[in-house]
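Format notes (please read before filing issues)

Several people have asked whether sequences and structure tokens are stored in separate files. They are not. Every record keeps both together, in the order shown below: the sequence lines, then the token lines. Line labels are part of the format and must not be stripped during preprocessing.
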Amino acid sequence: MKRDILLFVFIFAAFISRGQEQTYDIYYPQKIEAKDWKVRAQIYYDNHNNSNGFINEFTSAINQSKYLNQELKDRQSQSLGSSTLSGRSLKSGFDLYLNAKDPNKDLYYYFGLDHQQILDSRIDKNMVNLLLYGNQAYAGEQLSIENTEYSSVYFNRIKIGIGKRLGKGELKHELSAKLGLNFGQNYDAVQVHHSKFYTHPQGDYLDIDFQAETQLADSVWGSLFTINGMGASIDLHYSVHQDKKFFLGVHIANIGFIHWNKSPYIAAADSSFTFSGLENDSLNQEQIPNDFSYNNLRNLLFTQPSHEAFTELLPFDIQLTGGVYFANGKFYMGMNTHLYPTLMATYRAEIFVSYKYMDFFSLTPIIGYNSYEQFHMGLAVGFELWDLINIRAGSSYLNTMFNPNAKLGQGGYVSVALVI
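Then the structure lines:
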């Protein structure tokens, strides 16, 4: 009865809480071949925010819509390189694994839900400074903006799958596949190939030479249950291990697509015009917006959009993890790498050493490096309570996330699993 109540609590908590979406702990993947479990229920949250140019304090102020004073703007501007990479990868969800009734078949079945947010951007320094200081600060100058890109996708998935354990000798293998039904919340993408901005010294007019493309699905920001598109995806997994010797695993997630069909917007612009406020030589008065919000500026610059539905592939993730045990399994030294072939920030890697104490507690120092050319250091812990509850938590960003002047490096994970 007690275990049934705990299982219900964890299933319910998946919808209000947000880890690692595997049947094993990447920092100490032992006991994964055990056959005596019947049900494994898990909730998890995993978040990574990084940039090679934006600092923590500035990013926090933007996210919380705080006032940006001159001192913070100047400090942020001084931290920029010629091109600033920024990205966010957030995943939260619920997993339910059911072991086959016949242990000789070594099968398990899977049902899960997840919510994902993936943001990826590369912004020219001149674009950032233009947004920080406005064009008046550059009167009489011509600003060139090159190779600026931004993409953001929010989506949810319902997944079902099956896994199988193989191997009669010392080597044990595991294979699994999960099929997902994707529900798109929001998609927004902008590519600025080439642009030039010139402000008249007296501020009489602004010349714009603009070449860019954009795509989005519904300009109204969606809630958690908004559906602006649908699609399908698959996650694949393979691992091999030898007890207290070594472990190797490959996990590929988000191989799929979403067809965006609610208020789609596709447009391209390659034009020059002069903007002089309410009196504009190149635009009709009807084109001038009442306010210069993000969507109104998009409509001002992209004058002939298409509203046909479009399909976009999901940014997929290739995870490679592995390591070796020593001191009779008391220590585990390994690596964990995520590759993102379709994103501008293409990888995130870490090495670690885990110490296992009396089978119920593990401690893992972590050193990481990523596409943002930053080293990170962190710590992970794991608890096993009564052979029933597994709790894991950690962060690779302990050296940066509490420093307001450090380049953006924040995030961590937490997961709680019930094993019956």
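For reference, the curators noted about this record: The helical segments are 2-13, 56-63, 70-78, 125-133, 294-301. The chain has a mean pLDDT of 84.
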